[in-house]
Specification:
Blueprint (H helix, E strand, L loop, with lengths): L7 H14 L2 E5 L5 E5 L6 E5 L5 E4 L2 H13 L10 E4 L6
Parallel strand pairs: 3-5
Antiparallel strand pairs: 1-2, 3-4
Amino acid sequence: MQNEEVGMATVYRVLTQFEESGMINKLNFDNGQSVFELSNVEHHDHLVCVKCGKIDEFSDEVIEQHQHDVAEKYGYQLTDHCLYLYGLCKNCQ
């Protein structure tokens, strides 16, 4: 299969199949950008640059605990969440 090109439609079809099977998750950001991540990675949140589209992943236990506290305060049992923080990365400031 060397030097064989794969069409974009094939790539998107396979990604959709992986998503439907639960192998990957599709993340849609407010800037119109979408990315795919493996489903079996530890939970993390995202910083998204509104200028260049750079995405950084981060984990913060204080933020995680605060989200659970807020949910409990309002009578919710938190089952899942996603946090996207939008701003300008170091290179775009």
